[in-house]
Design a protein that fits this description.
Number of helices: 1
Radius of gyration: 18 Å
Shape: rod-shaped
Distance between the termini: 63 Å
Strand content: under 5%
Number of strands: 0
Structural class: mainly alpha
Largest sheet: none
């Protein structure tokens, strides 16, 4: 029972710091969770390479 409480507490702390990190990054103008230019909050400023076949 005590072990379950410790595991839950550790997970809650990890989630708290992850959310805090994303919030701070977003607040300073960065993107949180961008996987590429199409989904990025700064997609209009992304530089994409165009290649000719």
């Amino acid at each position: 029972m005590l072990g379950d409480g410790i595991v839950i507490l550790v997970l809650a702390v990890m989630v708290f710091f992850a959310v805090r990190s994303m919030w701070r990054r977003r607040k300073t103008g960065g993107c949180s969770g961008c996987s590429g230019c199409s989904g990025c909050c700064h997609s209009s400023t992304c530089q994409t390479e165009k290649t000719n076949p």
